[in-house]
Amino acid sequence: MASSHGSRTEQFALKLSLLGTVIMGMLGLIFGYLSDSKAIFLDGIFSLLSMGMTGLTLYISILLKKPDNRLFQFGYAHLEPLMNVINGIFILLTCVLAFTSGFLDLFKEKEPINLQLAVCFALFSTFFSFTIFFIEYRISKKQKSELVYCDSQEWLIDSLLSTTILFGFLLVVIFDKLKLSHLTTHMDSYLVMIIAVSAAVFPIKILKRNIKEVLLVAPKDDYQKEVDSYLSQLCKKLKFDGYTHHLAKTGRQYDLEVNFLVKNDKKWTMKRQDRVRQLIWTHFKRQSSNTWLSVSFTTEKRWL
């Protein structure tokens, strides 16, 4: 279980992110409308989408502290990857729609944008987004929080997109000074397409990792290797007649099921079985405090 201090720090990071997305979302829509820039308006839409997802993420972080109950008898850990999958799908769909809109605008006559407002917003957005990213990234590493890490990566993408927008608008300013403004007529549309393609990288990564957890695909990490190694050694040491194990990862929780084959059932009393359970639990608790452990003994191979 995470410490209460760790949980409070995680929730602080997510509340800070939620406040940040509200600010950036509203400013993006306002400055996008005033400057007549679809790129800035799209940035505001991404922020508002992120606000909804961050709010749900914050709610899940609170649920993860609660013990299992009659309704959720295996706890709430499975909600974390499920939330990340929903988050990823929403962002990916928005990216597809934004790219399509930007591409179609290339074939339309484009009105000039208010460069002064656009550059001011891009400067503020770049600084603000990088600040939130660094705060969340440090907290995610310190608290080992996948929720905060995923949220920090969204801010990293926002930061890079804001930098791209800033660079694009500065390019327009430079070209205007050189009297080559005809070369940047559709710069706003190009920026929309660049934002859409760049932003799509993050949800694809998130979906790839979290769909595996939703489908209970066995993890390929150091914990899996440790489970394989330790149980193999334990089986030889205690001279079991065979064993099987199943491991799944849902969010920050590992679900480990171990089944031992014992042909001499008189030797393995309930007290001896419990001592083996305690051995396994003590060992893996050092590897991860969030492990749901189930250990069973059987005299028939078909129950392995």
TrEMBL record:
Pfam families: Cation_efflux. One of its GO terms (molecular function) is ferrous iron transmembrane transporter activity. Its main location: membrane. One of its GO terms (biological process) is intracellular zinc ion homeostasis. The keyword Chloroplast does not apply. It is found in: Membrane. The chain crosses the membrane at residues 12-34, 40-64, 85-107, 113-135, 155-175, 187-207. The keyword Zinc applies. InterPro entries: Cation_efflux (IPR002524), Cation_efflux_TM (IPR058533), Cation_efflux_TMD_sf (IPR027469), CDF_Transporter (IPR050291). One of its GO terms (cellular component) is plasma membrane. Residues 14-212 form the Cation efflux protein transmembrane domain. It is a multi-pass membrane protein. Keywords: Ion transport, Iron, Iron transport, Membrane, Transmembrane, Transmembrane helix, Transport, Zinc, Zinc transport. NCBIfam families: CDF. Belongs to the cation diffusion facilitator (CDF) transporter (TC 2.A.4) family. FieF subfamily. This is Cation transporter.
